[in-house]
Every structure is written in C-alpha cells, then in structure tokens.
C-alpha cells in the first residue's frame, strides 16, 4: 500500500505533526497571561478535544517515523532532509508544547536584564512591569523559586531574545524557537558528518533529528538540551576531523548551556591519545588539554555574560525535584520509606551511588575506546545514556543526549534500535499541556512493551560496520602506521 511507502510515511508524519500543532493551540502549554489573544485557554471542551487531537497526531507521527526507519534499514533511499522539513514546519508557529520550560528561559533572560541574580533566586523575583514578568507567571510550580541550572552562554541567548521582544510572550517564544531550529540544524550537520556513506547519513538523521521525541521537545517544547547536543556533537565532529582545539571550544560552549556535555571532553581526549599512538605523552595530552581549552571557554563566557560563577553551585538544584523516570530516586524513596522515618537521607545516598555507578560505566567505556574496542563516539553516546539512566532527575527528552550521539555512528545497531523503541515510548509520558498524567505512563508502557516484542521478533540485520567516523578512522590508520 502507498501509505507504507517512504512517500506515504512523509505525508502521514506531516499530518501527524500538523495535528499535534493544531491540538496544541487548545491544549498546549499556554501562558497564564500575555498570550495576545493567540495563545489563550479555550474552555474545557476544546481543551479536551485539542488534547485528543494532539495524541492522535503524535501516534501518526510515531507510526510514520518507525515505518520510515524500517524502510531505511532495508536499504530504501529517500529524501530524509525533505521529510524533516515537512515534519518540522507545522510546529514552527505552535504555542509551547509538552513543557513550560521556555517560560523559565524567557524569565531568566529578563532577570539578567533587570539585574537580578539568576543563580540566587528563581523567576518569582520578577516584579510587575519587569521584563519577563509575564513569562514568570507561567513557570511551572517546581521551578518558580529555583535558581537557573544553566550556563551563561544560554543566558546570553535568552537575553538576546528578551531584549528586542521586550519579554512579550508570543515574540519571545518564537525567538526561542529560532534558537531551537538552529540547534536542530547543528544536530543534522554533526550527525551527517560523523556518519559513513549516504545510507548511514539518512539513517543517522532519522534516529537523531526525525525522532518524534526530538521534534516535540526541542522544536515544540524548545528545550535547551537540543542546543547542548548540537554544540557538543559539532565539537566531537571537529575533533574527529583533527581540529580538536575548535572542537573543545564548541564542547565548552555546550557545557555553558548544560553541564552534561562535559562528558564529551573525555572521549575527545581518547581521540587525541590514540592519534598520538596511545603512549604516555598522548594520554597526558588527552587528559589535560581538552579540559584546559573548555575551561578557558567557560571562564571567558562567564566573564562575558556578567552573571558570575554561580552556575557552579546550581548544577545539582534539579536533582532536588523528584521525577518518576529516575530509577535511583524511585528506589531511594522506596527504601527510605521502608527503612527510616525520613526517607530523604536514604534517597540521597542511593542517588549518589547511582551517579558513582554512572561514572564507573563512563570510565569503562572510555577505556574500551582507548583500547580500540569501541568507537569513541559510540562510547560517548552510551555513556550519556548511562548517565541519564542513573541520574537523580530524569525527563523524557534527556534520552536524546545519548540517542543523537549513538545515531551518528550506530543507528543501524541493536543499541540504535533499542533507543528508537524507548524514544517512541517516552513521547507519550508528557501531555501537550506539560503535565505528566497517569495515562501518559500507561501509554508509554504499552508502546514500550510492543516495541520490545517487535524488536525481539524483527531485529534489524546488522550494519556492514559500526566503525569510527571517516576522519577519525583515517587518523587511526595513520597512528597505526607509525
């Protein structure tokens, strides 16, 4: 049937994306005030209808995406970038979807412009009439008094949006969406550069950028995780091509958006060490130089932003907020409830143990990459997946940290297929309004179960190779010939 063809998937996914956007006009994460008559609550009946339309559209998008990936895995060639344009376009003018975080971004940009300390207080410090005050009114309850956990580079971008728009909701949100589109472009450039032949580039874009989890949360929800991923992966690409200093600069900028990007420095260090033949001198260079370059970028960005070094103490604030997707937080809470009157100390210990295990896994993957047993880029992707799985706070879109990186070099592997299944499931966890209803977890669980059964019965054939990216592969050949 035509609908199961690549062309049919393109149309079906575009229809799904359009339904998500239209549903969002009634059931999206609408502002409390300042919607300018465009983004306003429409009444309970329309809100329910919009939510149903958005869920139906999301299901169409997921089905089209998965079928499209199966076709690519079977060797079908198609205009993946054209498909990306079709699926992205309907979301461009939609209100914020699946999260209220963009209001925090706008409010924090306003806080900087108004002279408030973004690392000392939350958006609630903004008074009436101050830039970003309308956005602050729409910030989710957990984040109203929470200091910014983001680096100064992102705050500079938020300032650049809030200043010209005066903090008005609609233009400020659309300004933040332009940044999200820039992040999407960076991701596409990086994954295509790291992938091998034309078929691998198409598959990499499919898992990384066409991924509904990325479309709804980076384009629709404008999460700054997309910018962190794009800068980080762009830095890895440059390092793989031998331009490691510039690559570390990009990773340093990514760190000054969100700190988990720092993991990439370890694997860039592995690349440097292997190019130097793996001796003591190469290992020393790999361990020290990436950190020095990225550290210099962090200091320069902090001084340029004028926001101070408060970001060093706010990196753990998000961990204080319990999310049901965090295995260590759930386990710690359960053990604490059973073993103590106050569960928080036990929960804190379990969370720290989880992070220690994650660090151990990251170091083990870096060791394997240094020994040549695994591609350093794949090692980075798996490290980020492990970090997310064992973090004290996990949001659905955090899975993208590792998924996009794995997509660049191993989309056709079993790891890529498993991450695709989890991506398809996690899109259902959050409602268009940004809330996490019980039925979202039920839907996600059903999709995950179906996906894992399908994966076992119809695993993709192994790719011809899961090898280091072209530039890195050439450097490794040169190092071995010395």
TrEMBL record:
Recorded hits in InterPro entries, A to Z, give: MptA/B-like
A GO molecular function assigned to this protein is: hexosyltransferase activity
Question: What GO CC terms are in its UniProt record?
Answer: plasma membrane
Which keywords appear in this protein's UniProt record, sorted alphabetically? Answer: Glycosyltransferase, Membrane, Transferase, Transmembrane, Transmembrane helix
Pfam families attached to this UniProt entry: MptA_B_family
Topology versus the membrane: Multi-pass membrane protein
Transmembrane regions listed in the UniProt entry: 45-68, 80-98, 168-191, 203-224, 244-267, 287-311, 317-340, 352-370, 376-394, 438-455
Question: Is the keyword Phosphoprotein assigned to this protein?
Answer: no
Query: Which compartment or compartments is the protein found in?
Result: Membrane
Keyword Membrane in record: yes
For this chain, the family text in UniProt reads:
Belongs to the MptA/B family.
Q: What is this protein called?
A: Membrane protein
* Annotated source species: Streptomyces gardneri
